Write a sequence for this structure.
């Protein structure tokens, strides 16, 4: 696991975009695993800039998103379908046929989850998976206690996650209690992982992820076992690490 620290989160976002762009230029038809929430927003803005100003080409890219709320239609302003199109896809030349986001309105969620797993495999697996991390150590919606071998499935969201996500809704009661999420085992099958984090609120989670034992209590700790995992964080998120980690 490579840990890279930057002075601020703007630099974290630019570094993450640089790493993704390097892969895309090397393999134009790469399969990307994408994340939502506030963490990847700066990276997406930089990717949009690279597309518009430097011609970064997304026309052959295939994407799979980590998760989606159950019960929110794609048109809902807080659905991850809406998030991805508003913050990335409609600004680049991605082929809509190559975009895959879990369907929170699926009639049979178990069947959909199985299809999602099979589709990832059909596309050759994920080349680079982007990850954020929750303050409680969750990745995607794999809450503390999730099986480290889990696959795409429905999960009940913890009170902490609902509290953290309530800022995107009118109030906490509007936050869906269930979500479809890629499993930890699914995430670990990606050929590369890129985990981003910023701010002092993530410092404890980053310390556990980077320096703590691997355990289901902190699902993000599993990235320690991945052969090609890069953790890019700002100085605030790195503030509780015992080791010395430097930037590129």
């Amino acid at each position: 696991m490579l840990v890279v620290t930057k002075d601020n989160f703007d630099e974290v976002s630019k570094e993450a975009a640089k790493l993704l762009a390097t892969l895309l230029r090397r393999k134009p038809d790469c399969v990307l695993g994408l994340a939502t929430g506030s963490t990847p927003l700066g990276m997406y803005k930089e990717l949009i800039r690279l597309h518009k100003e430097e011609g970064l080409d997304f026309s052959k890219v295939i994407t799979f998103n980590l998760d989606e709320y159950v019960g929110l239609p794609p048109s809902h302003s807080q659905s991850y379908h809406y998030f991805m199109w508003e913050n990335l896809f409609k600004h680049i030349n991605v082929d809509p046929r190559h975009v895959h986001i879990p369907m929170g309105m699926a009639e049979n969620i178990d069947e959909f989850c199985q299809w999602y797993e099979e589709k990832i495999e059909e596309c050759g697996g994920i080349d680079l998976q982007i990850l954020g991390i929750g303050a409680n150590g969750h990745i995607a919606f794999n809450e503390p206690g999730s099986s480290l071998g889990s696959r795409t499935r429905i999960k009940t969201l913890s009170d902490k996650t609902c509290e953290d996500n309530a800022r995107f809704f009118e109030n906490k009661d509007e936050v869906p209690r269930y979500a479809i999420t890629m499993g930890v085992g699914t995430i670990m099958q990606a050929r590369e992982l890129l985990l981003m984090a910023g701010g002092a609120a993530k410092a404890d989670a980053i310390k556990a992820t980077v320096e703590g034992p691997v355990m289901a209590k902190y699902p993000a700790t599993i990235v320690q076992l991945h052969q090609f995992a890069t953790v890019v964080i700002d100085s605030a998120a790195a503030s509780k690490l015992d080791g010395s980690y430097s930037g590129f």
